[in-house]
Amino acid sequence: MTAPAPAPTSAPRLPFDRPNPLDLAPLLGRLREQGPIALVTTPAGDPAWLVTAYDEAREVLGDRRFGKAHPAPETASKISSAAIQSGPTGSFEDEEREHARMRKVLTPAFSAPRMRRLSGRIEELTERCLDEMEHARAATRTPRSTCTTCCPSRCRCR
User: Fold this and answer.
1) What is the pTM of this model?
2) Fewer CB atoms near the end CB (10 Å): N or C, the chain?
3) Element (H, E) at 128
């Protein structure tokens, strides 16, 4: 898969507006209809390619040329203007080796047997979060913040 380098443009800027947090952004839907790859602008103002189709995403994710590192990080597009984690990270030469090492370390934590053991606890946390959402709605507060932070953060912290 080869694509020309992005040229400066008035490409859509990430993140896209999402009137309903449970739905995809309407602009993402339109971009998907236009084609599998779209030119966008990162929150930092840099050009980037957004892959919107399954087959193309699998191809990119399986291609060693794409990753968290970059052979020339000073010229790479930035994701944000944050002081850390705003652009490429790690060493381009060592990325594959580091990925294999991390996969070996983390795989046991996400094994099927471990996930089955956690399912009861996750159901309990989900029930509690749903109850809190109902209370938030009754108190005329928005349940959105409860929905998007409560359950995922509690499940990850287990």
Assistant:
1) 0.60
2) C
3) helix 112-138
21-28 contacts, C-beta under 8 A, 24 or more apart: 21/144, 21/147, 21/148, 28/52
33-87 pLDDT, tens digit each: 999 999 999 999 999 999 999 999 999 988 888 888 888 888 888 887 777 777 7
φ/ψ of residue 41, rounded to 5:
-115, 130
| Element housing 55 (H / E) | helix 54-61
pLDDT band per the 50, 70, 90 thresholds, residue 90: confident
**15: cis peptide before it, omega within 30°?**
yes
Identify each DSSP E strand in the chain by its residue range.
37-41, 47-51
- Looking at residue 2, its pLDDT comes to 53
The one-letter amino acid at 19: P
Q: Which is it for the CA torsion 85, 91, 96, 101, positive or negative?
A: negative
